[in-house]
Q: What sequence folds into this?
């Protein structure tokens, strides 16, 4: 059965994931000259790669309540790569916010038709 709230919840969790990735990328750029800093990353494929598990379950298993970011040891920080990843993340954010906007528009339509 179709449920708008299920879709809204999925998009909301995706926005949370995008936020975590942006935080990690920003931290990498800010600390690229810091001695001993360990590069951090959030891989979308780790969360979205399994089709059998709902995204909510997968995200909660991996992120947990505090939103853990994976640390990548011995990986040099390349500013060009980090900026490219930020641009990709920006595209994901745009897609997710458009989807959320569409869901809200659908809900408004249903409410107005039901009056």
A:
């Amino acid at each position: 059965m179709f449920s708008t709230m299920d879709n809204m919840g999925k998009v909301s969790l995706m926005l949370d994931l995008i936020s975590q990735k942006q935080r990690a990328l920003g931290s990498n750029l800010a600390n690229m000259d810091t001695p001993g800093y360990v590069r951090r990353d959030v891989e979308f494929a780790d969360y979205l790669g399994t089709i059998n598990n709902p995204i909510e379950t997968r995200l909660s298993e991996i992120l947990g309540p505090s939103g853990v970011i994976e640390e990548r040891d011995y990986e040099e920080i390349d500013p060009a790569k980090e900026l490219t990843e930020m641009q990709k993340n920006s595209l994901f954010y745009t897609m997710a916010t458009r989807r959320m906007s569409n869901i809200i528009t659908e809900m408004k339509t249903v409410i107005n038709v039901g009056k």
